Amino acid sequence: MNAAISLNGLSKVYAGAAEPALRGVSLAIAPGEIYGFLGPNGAGKSTCIRTLMGFIRPTAGKASILGLDIVKDSVAIKRRVGYLAGEVALYQDMTGRQLMDYLSALQPLKSANCLRRLVEDFQAEMNRPVRELSKGNRQKLGIIQAFAHQPEVLILDEPTGGLDPLMQEVFYDLVATASGDGASVFFSSHNLSEVQRVCRRIGFIKNGRLVAEHPVNRQEAGAKTARQRFIVSFDGPAPYFQIKNLPGVKVSRQNSGDLTIEVVGELAPLLKLLGQCRVKRLTSREQDIESEFLNLYQEES
Amino acid sequence: MIPVLLSELRRRRWATAGWSLGISAYIALNLLTYPIVRDQSKALGQVLASLPGSFKTMVSDSTDLLSPAGFMSSKILYLILPMLFTVLAVSLGSTLLAREERSGTLELLLARPLPRRRLLAGKMAAGLAIMAIVTVAASAIAILFSWRVGLELSLLRIMQAIGLSALMGLMFGGLALALSALGRATGRGSAALSAALAVGGYLVVSLEGLADWLRWPAKLLPYHYYQPTEVLLGGYNWLNAWGFFAITVILAAIAMAGFSRRDIGG
After folding, report:
1. Is the dihedral of CA B42, B43, B44, B46 positive or negative?
2. Where is the ABC transporter domain (chain A) (predicted)?
């Protein structure tokens, strides 16, 4: 099956820049696949997306969307693509309704019902000028305009910024539904938990390079061996060195005398040892998924 | 292209109305003073005779400031009206595209199946339409008040002179648009460059009669070929106007070519 989005050695060097913003990125996204594109700020996510959208021209390499060349067939591609910018910019003096009318005049909708449903689902404020809307409400309009014409490919640059948790859920459902209907989704984020939740495959980008790609179930499998953290108070001297010698364990002593213990892998040896000590208090601190991502990222680089 | 044109016109409707009213009011108020000038031409003639030549060349291209053509030129057509049209055209040229690029809304449009050239054509058409609306309003008021105060000039030539003034302004607007479309200057930068060329050109040309060394450089400047008194008297070489038009078209083509190829800022 042909890839819905295909990048082959895509590179971009901005005029006057010392370093390339993109360095030979190659990847392929299948029809109906939700692909997460992860990386820290400045890694090249937005450059990659803006190149795909034809806003900037690649310096080298090729890319296609739905079999169409991103440079030569940019207009034809946009008939079939929905795009949400990283920083949603809307006309401040227009209401949501005026904005959708304008954009629909430039790109006719397949069905007015789709727009109506999106407005209902997101409880979007359509009758107030954009300048009076909160960041979250502006983001909702950005999402609606990207999905309203029922595109075959969605390119979304950090789409949930400013959305409250309830609306994030609505958005995740929307992406899942679009994927179920056959749309491919290229989803950029720097939030691992979000990408894990939504995407089926994740690509990691750093310094303009695609440094790794993982299916999400591999990520989930990885979670079984994820780092877990405990803070332990002892009634008496803490068995610092005994704990330190356990496999897969890192330990540090806090000012209070408590120990912070990080375990990768089996917990049984640690629990067995603690069972022999006079433990006053044991607090489990779930490792922040963001720092998990950063750890993986450092390892990959 | 049409939705872009209509949206731009809708968003600028109040500014367009303001410009039309402002320029019309300026023309009307000046023309209303004509009967006073005409009735006191003898006394005013003596005052004007005592003024330095440089003053006269800076306010008009006519040697007789009290004649109907000289009055129209000195009060309205030589300096203030072309400057107002230039400010309007340059502000349009420097914002039609650059403001959208700066605010990020340009990406919203370019994410649609709309070729860049068609998008820019829609913006240009909006700019032209706004200039045309203001020019028609200015011409209508000038004709009406010229007739009302008994200014002995052809109404058609008054209209032509105002049109020429707008055309020269449009040319500077085209320069501002080309600079911003090429991405070589921000909106403000392109406006500043275009306005500097317009004002500098006026100063050089208005002083060329007093300094021989300015004659040759003045010939390179558009203002040299802007002679509203000649238009009013029927002796203007309209090839000059075609020159303004041709330069404007060339600048528009440069804007098209540059904008369709370059990276969009984000």
Report:
1. positive
2. 5-232
Closest alpha carbon within chain A to B110: A55
Interface of B with A (CB under 8 A): 3-4, 7, 11, 103-105, 107-115, 261, 263-264, 266
The answer to whether A90 contacts B105, with C-beta atoms less than 8 Å apart, is yes
Q: Are A298 and A207 in contact (CB under 8 A)?
A: no
pLDDT digits (tens, 9 = 90+) for B26-51: 999 999 998 888 888 777 777 777 77
Question: What percent of chain B shows pLDDT beyond 90?
Answer: 56
HSE-up of B237 (CA within 13 Å, CB side)?
A: 6
Question: How does residue A298 score in pLDDT terms, banded at 50, 70 and 90?
Answer: low
Q: What is the DSSP string of A232-290?
A: EEESSS--HHHHHTSTTEEEEE-TTS-EEEEEES--HHHHHHHHTS-EEEEEEEPPPHH
Q: What are phi and psi of A60, to 5 degrees?
A: -150, 165
| In a shared domain, residues A212 and A278 | no
Asked if pLDDT for residue B145 goes beyond 90, the answer is yes
Domain final residue, candidates A216, A250, A275? A216
Distance CA B211, CA B220 (A): 16
A222 lies in some domain: no
Q: Please report the pLDDT score of residue B167 as a whole number.
A: 96
Mean pLDDT for A50-73 is 94
Lowest model confidence (mean pLDDT) among A8-22, A211-225, A261-275 = A211-225
Range of the domain at A235: 227-298
Name which of A52, A49, A43 is nearest A20 in CA terms.
A43
Asked if residue A293 and residue A251 are part of one domain, the reply reads yes
Q: What is the CATH number of the domain that holds A152?
A: 3.40.50.300
Q: Is A221 contained in some domain?
A: no
Token pair listed for A34: 């939700």
Q: Which residues of A touch B (CB under 8 A)?
A: 14-15, 46, 50, 53-57, 75-76, 78-79, 81, 83, 85, 87, 89-93, 102-103, 105-107, 145
Residue A219, pLDDT > 50, answer no
Query: pLDDT, tens digit, for every residue of A115-134?
Result: 999 999 999 999 999 999 99
pLDDT single digits (tens) B117-142:
999 999 999 999 999 999 999 999 99
Write the residue in B4, B11, B112 that is nearest to A107 by C-beta: B112
Q: Give the domain CATH number at A286.
A: 3.30.70
